C-alpha cells in the first residue's frame, strides 16, 4: 500500500497534519509520497505533480475540507485511483474521515475494509464561434450566472436537442448528485443520492416562479446558450473556481464525463448519516 | 390494429367522444372494443373488463384527463399494452393528444408513427404485524399523511436498510418521475425527466426547514414506518385514490415495480413542450 | 406582586417545577395562586379557573413549552395580564425563560426589570347559513385544510371585500407574526417580526406554484369560503387545536383581535437571538 | 388640470404614444408639459427637468413599463405629486393603465375619479470609514450581492441595533411592499400588500437553508455590513440600477423614507386582480 498525500497549503495546521499522517502510516508499514505543493510545506521534502501522484499511488489522501477535495480532483484530473478526504476538524460531504481518525483510516487501508464509491462527473464542452473547443469536467456543478450588471440573463436550454426552456434568471446550475448538496441546494434544488444516475438543472432566482429544478437521467445531454435578448452576457464557472465570461455566440454542452471520482468510504459510515448531521436534521 | 377504449364515465361528453373516436377509427379500418363501464355509456354496446381489454387489444385509448389515466392504469393492472390518453379539451401530462386530434391519432396508429415511452412505476408492499402482506403499485406517488387531527406525524424512513431520517411533517410522498409533476411538485419537489431512472422522497410541510426532497436511484428500496413518538397514526394513499389508515405496527416498502406504464407519444410531441405549457413557462 | 401559575398537567415533572417555582418565589416574598387543573397536581392545593386567575394576579406564569402557552392563552381568554412562559428544558418562541432560571425570573418580577411585549392576535368569526355566529381568537394561526379524502380543497379568499384568489390546495393558513414561526413557516411562509403590524396568508401545497405567501396589513379583513367546485369540504382549526368541518355555506372572517397577548420578556433577551438558536442559524 | 409627461426614450413607439396622449388630453381640455428627455422625442418640443415637472404639474404620467416607472421615480426625486404609469402593451405592477386606455385615463383625471395610493419607500444611508455619507432611496429594493468571484459573501445584519444574523449567501435584499413582486419574489420572498406597513429582508441563495425571508415593521432600522470573514466584498445596487462596490468598512442603514411614491389607481382596478393576472393565478 502506497499513499499519495495532497494538503491544502492555505489551511493552518496542514503541515502538522501531514506529518502526523505520515507518522501514523509509516508505523503501520504504509509508505507515502507527497504532491508538489504539499511537499513545500515540509522541510526537505520533495514532491510529485498531482496527476503522477495519483498514477503511482494506490490511494490519494487529501487533507482539508470539501473545497480542498474539489481542488485536488481538478489538479489530479481523470484517474481511477481512489481518493480519501481527511477533514481537519469538521465532517464534510466528500471527505472520508476527520484528522482525529488517522489510526482508523490507516487500519482501513491496511485491511482493505473501505468501500470505493464512484461519483459521476460532468463533462463540459464549450464550442466557440470560430469552431474552437474547450473541455473541462465538474465534480459539483457548472454555473452560468449574470455578472455585476444587476440585470437578468436569458439562457436557452436544450435537452438532447429539444428546447427545455428560455430561462430569465440570475443564473442556471447543472449539478451532479455530489453537487446537489452545494450551490444547487442553496438555489432551491433537491438532494440527490450519490448513487443516482442523474443530474439536475437548477435555475437561480428565476423570473418565473414555476421554473423548478429538473432532474435528468445522466444519459442526457444539456446544451446552454445565451439567448439573443439577454440583457447581459453570461459568466460561467466550474465548481466555483475561476469565473469567466461566455461569449454570446458560444455554446456549452454538459453531459456525463467518461471518468468518475472514486471516493473512499470507511465501513459503517453512511451517506445519509452525513446528510442528517450536515443539514442538522437530528 | 385493434383498439380498446376506456372513458371517464363521470365526465360530460364522454359518450359523444367515444362514438366520435369509434367512427373516426372505423373509417380508417381500425376496429375497437369497449371496456365494461365505458360500454354502459353507449346504448346497446357490450364491454370487456379492463385487464382483458388490454390483453386483447394492440393499444388502449383512454378518454379523459390525467386523473382518468391514473384510474385506467389501476383498473387495467400490469400490462405491456401501450396506453394513449385522449384529453377532452386540455392538454395533460399523461395524455397523448386532445379530442380535437382524433384523425391525427388514428393516422399515427395506422402508420405506426408513434413512440412508446415506458414510465417506471412504484411497487408498494405493506407488511402488517401479523405477517400479512398487501401489494399495490403507484403511477404517480404513494403518500403518507396525517389525518384530521391537526397533529404532525413522525415517520421513520430507511433507504436500502439505512436510516434516512425521522420526519416530523404533515406527510411524506414517494413519487415517480411521472408523479413529479403532481403532488410532489405542490409540496416543493423537483421535476424529474420521465426517462430518469429515479424516484423522489418529498416531505410535506416538514417541521425542519432543511428536510428537502431527496432523489433516489430507482434501484433503491424505501421503507417507511410510523415512528413511536408520532402524535397520530399515518394515513396512506396511492395516486390520490382511497385513503386508509396505516396501523402503527405496519411497514411500507416502496421500490420500482416490475412492470411499467407504456405511454404512447405522438411524433413531434415533446415532453418539455408540455412542461412549458402546463407550468406556463412560455 | 402576586403570581398565578398554570402548568401543563400532561408533562412529567410539572408538579416538581410548580413546587420549585412556588418555593423560589415565596422566599423572595412573591405570593402565588394556582389554576384549577394545576392545583390537582399538588397534594392539598386548591385552584382558581384560568380567567379568574389572570384577573386576580399581576402576572401569570405558564410552565411548559410553546404548546402549553397556546393552550393557556385560550384557557385564560382575553386579558391584559402579562404572561410568562417557563419552558421545561428547552427554549421556546413564546416562553420567557427556562426552569433553570427561576431565580432570575423571580428577581425580574420583583425589580420590574422585565418588558411586556404585546403580540397581536386574530379574531375569527364564522357566519353560518342560518345566521348563527361563532367567534374565537387565534394566537398562532387559523388553518383551513382538506380532510382525509386525498382531494384538494378550493377556497375563495377575499381581502377587504375584494377577491384575492381561488386557491386549490391542501389548505390555507392565516397566521399572526407569532404564528409565523409555526405551521406557516413549515408551509413555506416568511418569518414576521413580532412587532410588525401584519399577518400572513400562506397556502399549503398549492396546486399553482406561484401562489406565494401574502403578507397583509393587520387592518385587513380576510374572508374565506369553500368554493363551489371544491372536491371536499374544508376543515378548520385554530392554533392546531380541535379540528372541525366548515359547512360549505359558512364563511370565516379573520381580522385583528381587539385584545393582545402580553408576553413577558426578560431584559437582554432578544427575539432574533431566539430565532437564530431555534432555526439553527448559528 | 395640468399633466406632466415622462416617456421611456429607449422604447419603440414612445413618441407616438406621447403624441396620442397629448392629443387625447388636449381634446378634453387638459394641458401638458414634457420632461427634458421626453421632449427630445418630439420635433420642436421643449422640456423641463423631471423634478421641476413634478412640481409644476398636478399629475405626472409615465409612459412605459415598471422599469420606466422606477427610473422616473428616481429622476423626479421626492415629491407629493401623484404619478400614473401608462404601460405600452402589457399590464404592470406599478402602472395605472395601458396605452389602449388613454380616454379612460383622461376622463378619470377630469372627474377626479382616481385614487392616490401612497407606497412606502426605503431610505438608504451609507456611512463610509472616513465619516462621509451617501443617501439615496429605493422604490423596490436595495440589494447586496457578490460580484463575479464565485464566492459567497458574508453579511452582518442588525435590526434596531440587535444582531439579526450573519448571512452567508449570494446576497441579501431589503425590499418594500412594492418590491415584493420583483427581485425578492424571485429569491423566494413573500408577497406584501402595498398598504402594509412593512418591508422584508430576503437572503439570496443562503448557505443555511433555514434563512427565510423576514418581514419587519416599517419602523425598523436595518443595518448591514460586510462581515470580516467575507470571501469577497459586497456589491450594492438600488432598484437594479447602477451596481457599485461597498467598501468593507462601510455600513448601510436602511429604513423607511420620509416621502412616499403616490401612485394613481383608476377606479375599480384592484391590486389583487393585477397580482392574479401577472402571476397567472387565474
From TrEMBL, chains A, B, C, D:
UniProt-recorded Gene Ontology molecular function terms: kinase activity
Subcellular location: Cytoplasm
EC annotation from Swiss-Prot or TrEMBL: 2.7.1.23
Assigned protein family: Belongs to the NAD kinase family.
Entry-linked HAMAP family: NAD_kinase (MF_00361)
Keywords, in A-Z order: ATP-binding, Cytoplasm, Kinase, NAD, NADP, Nucleotide-binding, Transferase
Highest taxon of source: Bacteria
Organism (species): Rubritalea halochordaticola
Record-given protein name: NAD kinase
Primary role: Involved in the regulation of the intracellular balance of NAD and NADP, and is a key enzyme in the biosynthesis of NADP. Catalyzes specifically the phosphorylation on 2'-hydroxyl of the adenosine moiety of NAD to yield NADP.
Catalytic activity: NAD(+) + ATP = ADP + NADP(+) + H(+)
Keyword Zinc-finger: no
Annotated SUPFAM superfamilies: NAD kinase/diacylglycerol kinase-like
PANTHER family assigned: NAD KINASE (PTHR20275)
Enzyme active site: 66
Binding, NAD(+): 66-67, 140-141, 151, 168, 170
Named cofactor requirement(s): a divalent metal cation
